[in-house]
Each structure stands twice: as C-alpha cells, then as structure tokens.
UniProtKB/TrEMBL annotation:
<keyword id="KW-0288">FMN</keyword>
<comment type="pathway">
    <text>Pyrimidine metabolism; UMP biosynthesis via de novo pathway.</text>
</comment>
<dbReference type="GO" id="GO:0005737">
    <property type="term" value="C:cytoplasm"/>
</dbReference>
<dbReference type="GO" id="GO:0006222">
    <property type="term" value="P:UMP biosynthetic process"/>
</dbReference>
<dbReference type="InterPro" id="IPR013785">
    <property type="entry name" value="Aldolase_TIM"/>
</dbReference>
<feature type="domain" description="Dihydroorotate dehydrogenase catalytic">
    <location>
        <begin position="5"/>
        <end position="287"/>
    </location>
</feature>
<dbReference type="GO" id="GO:0006207">
    <property type="term" value="P:'de novo' pyrimidine nucleobase biosynthetic process"/>
</dbReference>
<protein>
    <submittedName>
        <fullName>Dihydroorotate dehydrogenase-like protein</fullName>
    </submittedName>
</protein>
<keyword id="KW-0285">Flavoprotein</keyword>
<dbReference type="GO" id="GO:0004152">
    <property type="term" value="F:dihydroorotate dehydrogenase activity"/>
</dbReference>
<keyword id="KW-0665">Pyrimidine biosynthesis</keyword>
<dbReference type="Pfam" id="PF01180">
    <property type="entry name" value="DHO_dh"/>
</dbReference>
<dbReference type="InterPro" id="IPR012135">
    <property type="entry name" value="Dihydroorotate_DH_1_2"/>
</dbReference>
<dbReference type="InterPro" id="IPR050074">
    <property type="entry name" value="DHO_dehydrogenase"/>
</dbReference>
<keyword id="KW-0560">Oxidoreductase</keyword>
<dbReference type="InterPro" id="IPR005720">
    <property type="entry name" value="Dihydroorotate_DH_cat"/>
</dbReference>
C-alpha cells in the first residue's frame, strides 16, 4: 500500500503538502491546472497588492489631483483590480479541484479589508494575508509592527468566514510570541517566511539595483530553525514553510520540523512545474523506507519539543562550535 501524502493545513485537506506559493506563476488558470496535474496540493494566487492599487491611482491623478478625482479614481481602480481578481478565483475553482488560496499583500489596516468579503463570494478556500512594511521611521513606537499584524487579522476576520493565514516576515523581536498572538486571535495558520526584495549597488553606475529575485538553498536553514521552534512552542497550529525550498528532500526536512505544508516558488521558476512531482515522489520513497504511512505520523517528529537537545535549534554563535575549523 502506497503511503498517503494527504495533509491538513489551515482547515483545508490537501492531496499533497506541496503548495505553489504566490507569484506570477499563479495568475493564470492554465498554469494552475498544470500545477494540479503535477501533484500540487494547493495554489496561492498571485497577490492583490494594496501598494499597486495606490500606485495605479496616483498615476491616473498626474493631471488632476482634486479630492473628488482622487476618491473616484481610487474607487474605480479598486473595483477593477478586484473584479479581475475575483474572476481568476471563480475560474480557478470551476476548472480545478485543488484548494485555491487567495492572497492580499498589504501594509495598512484600511478599507481594502472589504475585499475579503468579495474574495469569499468568488469561492476562494482561504485567504493568505501578506503583511509587510519596512520599519524605517525612528519615531514609530516600538511594537507597532507587531500590533499591526493582530489589528489587520481582526479587521479581516470581521469581513469573512474564510480561514485567514498570515504570511510573516522574518523581522520580529520575538517570532514565537507573535505567532502565539495570531493563534489567540484565531488565525488559521502562518507562513514562515515572506522573502523580501533585496537591493544591491552597482559600483560602476553608482545606482541602487535589484538583488537576487529568487531564494537559494542556503536560506533553508533559517526557515527550518523557526518552523522547528514555532511548531514546538505553539502546538496544534498550522505552519507553511517558505523560503529556501529547492531540493527534492527539503519538504521532508520541513515537515519533520513541524510544517503542515511547504510553499515552493523559486524552485518552480528555476526547475519547472515537474519539481513538484519529484518532491512528491521523493517523499513517498522516503516514507516507504522509514515505514511511515501518513504525513501526520512524522510531522513535527524533530521539532523543538520532540528532541532531547533543544540547543540544536538555539545555537546561533559561530565561534563556539566552529572555532577549530580550518
């Protein structure tokens, strides 16, 4: 009997724990159907960006910035963007069987939260809320960013009965405490982590340029650490691992650390949709070898609470452990 890859994530039942992360690859129904065919358990649609709506409005206001024009154009742009997005949700749900998770990228607890109601009506199975604003204001009160996550979660939950998943960045003073607060306020799960755009500098042109768009395998360790710690310290809560997932055995490692699901994005861009099939096949073969029949039977087996030496997750100092390395 073949091992089952069925997984439970944020109240959803997935045929595989491999989820296609939000990107330009998930903005097209034909591509979503292809991801279903290669064995993805779910897809997260390309985000509806609060920032993009604002920028589109501003570009239209270049020659007329009256209050009346601002209000009209903002309403028009929001409605147009939302209509396109809900159409994508509806078509995806009508043509695919796997769960479709909508995504909003935002940095304010503002009027956009009403979008959640329309996203639910369109048939989305859940909503991933990607909250990020780089903290650069020295006058902003310490802790504002953390409280913003809880505030947005509460606002969105008032608008919809959909499971709300919070996609978190890595820049928190206490990630475990933040996840605990989100769980207490009835988030359905979290994604660890949102990978940020990084800048670079061209020393010849003296210009700020874009850094690497894709993640690398070297970034997996940080994701692995925090999935292991959070799943151990915040039990019975869904975690999707994201960032640094490239190797076909990486999802196995992350599930052992406690992930309920594993989002892949850069690997799909670089290796093609078939990488999902290879990840599923590698997981089945490993489960056969180890005698596991289900994902739940090994999920979290090596998380923070289930290992004897918890310092293996806590070690952060280079010199203590590698000072003799030549």
């Amino acid at each position: 009997m073949e091992p089952s890859l069925q997984a439970s994530y944020a109240g959803l039942t997935l045929s595989s724990p491999i989820v296609i992360g939000s990107s330009g690859l998930t903005n097209n129904v034909d591509k979503i159907k292809e991801f279903e065919k290669v064995g993805a358990g779910a897809v997260v649609l390309k985000s509806l960006f609060e920032e993009q709506i604002w920028m589109d409005t501003q570009s239209m206001l270049e020659y007329n910035n009256s209050a009346e024009a601002t209000s009209y154009l903002q309403s028009y742009v929001q409605a147009n963007n939302l209509k396109q997005y809900t159409d994508l949700i509806s078509r995806s749900k009508s043509e695919c069987r796997i769960p479709v998770i909508a995504s909003i990228n935002c940095y304010h607890a503002d009027s956009w939260v009403s979008f959640a109601r329309e996203i639910e009506k369109a048939g989305a199975d859940a909503l991933e809320v990607n909250i990020f604003k780089l903290a650069t204001n020295p006058h902003e009160e310490l802790g504002h960013y953390e409280r913003l996550h809880v505030s947005i979660l509460k606002r969105v939950k008032r608008e919809t009965r959909l499971p709300i998943i919070i996609k978190m960045g890595q820049r928190f003073s206490n990630i475990v405490s933040q996840v605990t607060q989100l769980k207490a306020n009835e988030a359905a799960g979290v994604v660890l982590f949102n990978r940020l755009y990084t800048p670079d500098i061209d020393i010849d042109t003296m210009q700020i340029t874009s850094g690497s768009v894709f993640s690398s395998s070297e970034e997996l360790g940080n994701t692995l650490r925090w999935v292991g710690v959070v799943s151990g310290q915040v039990p019975n809560f869904s975690i999707a691992a994201s960032t640094g997932v490239h190797g076909v055995t990486d999802p196995i490692k992350l599930i052992l650390a406690g992930a309920s699901a594993v989002e892949v994005c850069s690997a799909v861009y670089q290796q093609g949709p078939e990488v999902v099939t290879r990840m599923n096949d590698a997981m089945r073969e490993w489960m056969k070898k180890k005698g596991y029949r289900s994902i739940s039977s090994f999920r979290g087996a090596l998380n923070f609470q289930n290992i004897k030496d918890q310092s293996l997750y806590e070690r952060v100092q280079f010199m203590k452990y590698f000072s003799n390395h030549q």
